[in-house]
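Notes, Module 5: Reading structure tokens.

Key idea: the token line is not a picture. It is a compressed description, and you learn to read it the same way you learned to read a sequence, by spotting repeated patterns. We will look at two proteins. The first is printed below with its tokens.
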Amino acid sequence: MAQLSNRLQRLAPSATLAMSQKSSEMKAQGIDVINLSVGEPDFNTPDHIKEAAKKAIDENFSRYSPVAGYADLRQAIVDKLKRENQLDYTVNEICVSNGAKQSVCNTVMALVNPGEEVIIPTPYWVSYPQMALLAGGVPVFVQAGFEQNFKMTAEQLEAAITPKTRLLILCSPSNPTGSVYSKEELKALAEVILRHEDLYVLADEIYEHINYTGRHESIAQFPGMKERAIVVNGVSKAYAMTGWRIGYIAAPEWIVKGCNKLQGQYTSGPCSVSQKAAEFAYTESQACVEEMRQAFERRRNLIVDLARQIPGLEVNVPEGAFYLFPKCSSFYGKKVGNRVINNSTDLAMYLLEEGHVATVGGDAFGDPECFRMSYATSDDNIRESMKRIAEALGKLK
């Protein structure tokens, strides 16, 4: 019987993309669905960046680029890391990829051997454990729930480390929770990492600029950590460039060389035109980044306020990204008619079919007590969606 490889059979499909697809299908049937399932800014790419892409086309940037990306873009990233993060890298310590998602996967594939362990704080972005499995690694989950603001402690990290531990994946600001690690919290984690010789940290900082704490902190800033950290970032969230597919790693040169070797075999360099647009995004005015951040902060305040008015939901205040991850377990066991809500996936499907609001169950993120809503949408959509959610949840008895 024909069947796919064992490697693929170990993987689960992306729950966020699956929920988005279901909501799109309902929309196609004429149903008015508000989609809060996808982590994507609703803004258009700023005009000055689009103009740079048009110029690149006119100037015939239409051929293969170097595997690691154009030197000019890598220099722009080096300059950005120095200017904004006080981190010193060279162009040889940067690898540009087809989105930060590929940057994460490249790193996992380059560092993790079969049987080695990858520590992943829970809740996690849906793809982290799947990428560990793809590399033959073993995901080790550290529960960091609602009560601790979804942040892993240094003590929890130390307790999870074994002789097989190879990599920690840390996302701050976090998808799916919006939690942001403080400088003190990161320093404590860094001290644990430095005590273990072969342990590295993949710092996913893609939401760096969607941050309401006043300043982004990177775990790579501490003495000794630049040699142990792989910083992942990109243009998707900060510049509303999700479809342009440009991400990067900043890491020790031997890791970058490994990722280049891997990337050279299965994608080569990323889109030439997208790279020139990204270079312009990094080198020109950053006013657009702050404008979008302010809009997200306003929406954060709105959705938190409205969600707190819904009986049965427990809501924390996310400090970054554009997600709310409320605790909804008080609804488990409740029903309307013959429909029983047993878990967060049931709840998300109920909200979609009954309330016509697409969310994602927390099961997909490793936290079955919560569900995720993206507030990367208009104020009107937020108000209407929260009204629908309140009405749908109010029917459960």
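Here is the second protein, with the sequence above and the tokens below, as before.
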Amino acid sequence: MADSTHQSDAILEAAGRSLQMNREGGYHRRGGFQAQGSKRIKRNHLTKKLVQLAMGIVGVFVAMGVAGAILNGIGFWGVMISAVAIALLATIILKQKVKLPQRHDLVQTTDAKQLVARTELWLESQRPALPPPAVSLVDQIGVQLDGLGQQLEHVDPAHPAAAETRKLVGEHLPEMIDSYCKIPRHLRGEERAGATPDAQLVDSLGKISKEIDSVTRQLAEGSLDDLAIRNRYLDYKYGNTQLPAPGENA
């Protein structure tokens, strides 16, 4: 009975977080939340495709120009061939989808910031296989990974927190979700060892979320201390300088 109550509390808590993120605009109408790191990867992929398409079109024009110079004009069929070539080129290039990282790709990624972005993209691909409470936690972790990625921009790769990030984000998180996805769907709601796989997944994701928050706070400590020092310095140097209220003497 206590385990059932704990599971219900976990589901309600996750649903509450999902509602709060929805109010804050953290979700798209389709496809759920998309973290900034995965958006950056997709944006870079789209830019690469457009550059390839532009270069291909230029190549077609150059080839047709050379052919026209040699043949003294390319004629109607030359124009049609050029149009078909450009259309085929555009179809082939624009159909290329961003390559989704696999679990082994995450383990092999040594750069912590790049690892965070790849994990965000990998998590998005796992959402359809997860129960609703876990999906809302995955979205919350996506938000946290955005913040962690920003902190890692200013951190030495040899910093202990960077190593902890690689272990947490590149190993523990994907291993746990991968283990859950291997369980047949009809068994995920059955209680085993005091809890269902669904409840265990939600509980584990909650622990990982707390740990990511802890690592982010550790990395931000230096910036927070620096801000506090600067604030104290300005207060010491300039004091509490406030403009006089209307009607008061300066």
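Summary for the second protein:
- The chain is about 75% helix and 0% strand.
- Residues 1-12, 14-32 have pLDDT under 50 and may be disordered.
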